[in-house]
Fold these 4 entries.
Entry 1:
Amino acid sequence: MNIIEKITNKAKKINATIILPEANLDKRVYSAAKKLIKENLCKIIVFGEAADYDASFNSPNCRIINIKKYPQLSDYANQLYELRKNKGLTLKEAKKLVSAPDYFSMMLLKNGVADGVVAGACWTTANTLRPALQIIRTKPNKNIVTGAMLMIKENKTPLLFADISLIENPTSENLAEIAVSCADFYKKIVGTPKVAMLSYSTMGSANGEMVKKVQDAVKIAKESNYLIDGEMQVDSALDKVTAKRKGVKSGVGGNANVLVFPDLNSGNIGYKLVERLGGYTAIGSIMLNFNKPVNDLSRGCTVEEIINTVLITKLLI
Ligand SMILES: CC(C)(COP(=O)(O)OP(=O)(O)OC[C@H]1O[C@@H](n2cnc3c(N)ncnc32)[C@H](O)[C@@H]1OP(=O)(O)O)[C@@H](O)C(=O)NCCC(=O)NCCS
């Protein structure tokens, strides 16, 4: 069974409702929503009027909400105002924000009307995630939300890359938390994680501030029970001969399946190189550590990628 089949089978067993706030704004999200309903993969909430959708959306698997007519809208405005007033938000601004699909989705999620949100086919990552960071927040035992990408290719071990979408310049503590959060996710969805903390240096072959940041992260991350090692270059992480030659003694060298990048530039560029030149499919970004699952699509996403992201969102509940 390949990883997509594994994810689909697991997700089918979970009864959950996922909000697709862009279904009336983007043809790909519309098509994905239609398929999710038809194949009984998930219950969904979309926004707008019944007239915006074809007859297949008239299904027990789908709820269409007209935001402006939603009975709890003014209650949601008050809730958002209470949450953000100490950050300077006024009630008038809160009323305007909750009437928009991005903030409204998060209020529905916060209030338990749905179990997850998948958005970002038309919105930028920052616009998709800011309301989620403000309203949904991180899990109580976590300090940061991080964005990971599951990279898959036939007959190849699935790889998880992070952070590829959110944290511009993570500290050592952040990198260690990214490593452990990714290991948790990989273990839950794929199998035993082997985590490489990436750098331009392998095991002290170079010095400098950027290397030290990763070395310090490795020390912190090693306090977990996971197999985590570094700092190492990506060739040491993926190729056994190079790992041996460069002195990586742990089982991570040449076997890594979770790659933690030192910053957002390298993570974002890295996954796109593997996707475009290596022929891998990128699934995500999968946002780890939100209190309730919110996942961010790439604006270049396909219908299949949207469906896969919805299925993964169910697994994060
Ligand atoms: C998402 C992003 C806009 C958040 O920026 P921000 O300036 O912190 O936004 P806000 O101040 O409104 O943040 C909202 C809250 O979330 C918190 N937050 C920000 N990043 C967080 C993270 N990674 N984990 C947990 N909380 C976070 C902020 O501290 C803030 O908390 P507060 O309300 O208690 O002050 C910013 O991290 C960003 O632009 N990242 C890059 C995204 C991007 O463009 N990616 C492109 C690649 S796909």
Entry 2:
Amino acid sequence: MSSLKNKNILLGITGSIAAYKAGQILRLLGKKEAKVYPIMTEAATHFVHPLTFKALASEEVTYKLFKEERGAEHISLARLADLLLIAPTTANIIGKIAHGIADDILTTTVLAVDCPVVIAPAMNHYMYKNPLVQENIKRLRKFGFKFIGPEEGKLASGEMGPGRISEPFKIVEYVEKVIKSKNDFKGKTFLITAGPTRERLDRVRFISNYSSGKMGYALAEEGIARGAKIILVSGPSSLDPPSNVEFYSIESAEEMRREVKCRFAEMDGVLMAAAVSDYRPLYTEEGKIKKISQEKINLKLIRNQDILKEIGNKKGDKILVGFCAEVENLEDEARIKLKEKNLDLIVANNITLEGAGFGVDTNIVTLIDKKGNIEYLSKMSKREVAEKIWDKIKELMNVQS
Ligand SMILES: Cc1cc2nc3c(=O)[nH]c(=O)nc-3n(C[C@H](O)[C@H](O)[C@H](O)COP(=O)(O)O)c2cc1C
């Protein structure tokens, strides 16, 4: 049975030259027995008459926010939606959504939905490459909007470049994937660690690292979107905890260890994205360490327990995902850790690469699983990396069961 059968898909159509392709998309969704509700912007009606979609769609076509006969249609449509697909999506609509603007029926509906939103951009390549458009896309990805395309090729203007809307069949395939993945981890509970730890030297000083928590928080957001229950144990971070997670704030590696250990038994899996301090000061001064006349002072450090190794020893059939940030010999180091800690998957990143590692919104990672399968991911947003990691976890769980 098609995963789209009886699913309510809102199909946003915007003022792009590719608006006619929405007709094909609508037909393909219809073939898969989805219920499709076209929502057109005013500009889209200049490209394709609403009557076209009226003839093709099983449901009513909407293109006005204010109507005499019906009330708040953006709300009623939003409430029934299983997914909102915008295909094609103009640069204008991307910009409006990225800034929370809701001044037409489509953008108002976008703000009101509580379902995945898939965006299929279509525009001239200069428009697509414009830094403002790129910045808006980045912002939307960060908030969990899903993108399909655009693709490189010949554009309506005759020029070559990125900006072509993806082929309708690819868009529909992607919609199916997103709908299916909504319940990927329903009934499963995962613990995710994120951020740095702080190891206290005295009342005012600590040893820590540059981790921002962005990768772990992105994993938590994506896990929630796929139906999992998420326990997020985080070191100090300036990020707001994602909604719907059970959140625990910790400071030191030892506090993180305690939290992970006491919750481990109830988990289906643990993703250790935190940058945990390997060492802590042997002594912590109650007050403040005084500046003295000596030029050099010695700091004695003691090893923290390796949380991953500890839980790896008794993991049973739980899924265990580790992360490693390296500056050289990335794959070799990752393989050693994978084995040593009895992990199912390791996410390795070379923090010397631009756009990877601490603090930034993107990452460049390599996934290595316990069978030795290796997947090199290109630079992408941390939310997209999270998507790939959850895809891999799903695959590993399917193999196990
Ligand atoms: C012939 C023509 C083709 C256009 N094609 C596109 C396009 O493919 N992508 C795009 O972002 N804007 C395109 N535009 C510009 C949009 O129609 C314009 O920005 C409009 O305000 C978009 O409205 P909407 O985003 O509310 O649908 C085109 C305009 C014209 C006149």
Entry 3:
Amino acid sequence: MTKQLAALLIIMLLGITACGQAKEQKIVTEDNQDIRSKSDGYWKEKLEPHVYEVTRCSATEPAFSGKYWNNHEAGEYRCSNCGELLFESTDKFDSGTGWPSFTQAQGSSVETKKDISHGMVREEAVCKKCGAHLGHLFDDGPQPTGMRYCINSASLDFKSEKKKDSK
Ligand SMILES: [Zn+2]
């Protein structure tokens, strides 16, 4: 745990991401429904700067800074980029890390990719629908899954149970 926290600190200190490194200048037409093929410019325009930095440039928000790490309300967590349902509040737990943490994702909404940035080998958690960077997946979570999805608040859009019907 301390090793991981130290690693996360290093990431935060580095701060600089490889944004735009793999920028694909695809021509996107108006009727293109494939959200995966949206250009970098599309997201830059659509998203708040800090959300863009996290979800499209794989930045990590500082611990205890996001809006959901300490949120205990019942509801669902959707992708801040495309609205896909990613996590349920019933799977959220207090990991003490300062980032929203979940023991499992909803269905197959979250995919993982090997991330070898910053001199570490980690599993990156990505929205399967739109490709947004969410955070990382670790295997030190509580039972029964033993998994810990460590997610940036900026990647999430919380819908309270109470307001679900009026979304
Ligand atoms: Zn998404």
Entry 4:
Amino acid sequence: MSIYAPEKNWFHAPEGAERVWIGLALTWCLVMFVMMTMWHFKGKQNSTGEAYRVDQTAFAARVDSFVKSNAVLDEKGNPVFAEVRDDKGVLITDTRFPVVEPSPGGDAYLYARLWYWTPVLRLKAGQTYRIHISGETYQHGFSLQPMNMNFQILPGYDHVLTVTPTKGDYQIICNEFCGLGHHKMTGKIEVVE
Ligand SMILES: [Cu+2]
């Protein structure tokens, strides 16, 4: 027989170094438990928790009209497209990312599609914007780099992030596995003076 019943009274209370390690692990678990709750109230990493149920078709239409009316145009009046690179620095060429400049203090839109974030937002440093984010199909993880702010994005919901950005180029990646193109799902926010 390959399986044996354990001997009776198999349990021996931990002692010595084993006791110390169990104590350390337990203490650390309790510290993390307290910290998890604390981060909910402290720090600037939390979203305002604002989200609304939306009809996906209506949201897509709002994104389209936002892009049309706020698109950055070149001197010939054609929309400007941004260079967006994946996390390996490779230029993504199968998608065109329109650059859109929302009015300071106003609403901006960001749409998670398969598999990219669109459009590229050009924001002014020190101005406050309400960024509406939703997804076209699956659940995605909005992850803003390099500051590492992370939010879950669900189709059918408009997640509103109120931000006052500082100057710089920020990359958006997806950190929730969402299918074949997940590893190259990227986007960009440019913040200018
Ligand atoms: Cu993903």
